[in-house]
Amino acid sequence: MEVFVRNLQQEATEKQVRQYFRLILAELGINVFHCQKPRNKGYAKITLLDPRSGQRFLDIHGQLIPGSQGFRTVKKKLYHMTRPLNCSLSNTAPDEYILKSLDREKTERIQAKRSYAPTASVISEKQSRRIFDFNILYCGGMDYVGSDLAFVPYYGKARSGRLVFGRHFVLVDFSTSVVASLAQQMEIPYSSIQSLIM
User: Fold this and answer.
1) CA dist 146 → 7, 140, 143, 150, 158 (Å)
2) What's the CA gap between 41 and 8, in Å, rounded?
3) pLDDT tens track for 126-144
């Protein structure tokens, strides 16, 4: 499925638009997509592998009626660089080669997650410098408590697991068995982390 996005800043780069939609789509569980944003143009095309996921995105962020009247009916409006975005179903079919590429990326992601089951005997010395066990995990931010700068937790979980620092993201693994369960893992892209305290 292809989603047509209008009203982008012409100066916005494809990388900026891709990073913006990566976060929006991740909220809907969509991690595999393709973004095309021509230079000096105010539109982009987002290609999604699964039409049902694309329809879910359009149900929330899509504009069914053209023009400003239609934008008022959007359930959850999107803004990029302070401009309201108009997302709608593209009138062209997605490129078959892009779909094949997305399908391959999805397959590789699934295989990579299934093959990730590190044990003490499998972890190399180099890898062990990137893996940290924990018994409690806090998410929060830095704030002033009185006149002192301190870490203020927003969420805490007293549960053991490990942090694995990869190339593009931190993997939070709550599974305790040798075979890791995908439902007990969370990928946090470095681009979404403001700071990290250990």
Assistant:
1) 44, 17, 9, 9, 27
2) 8
3) 455 678 888 887 878 788 8
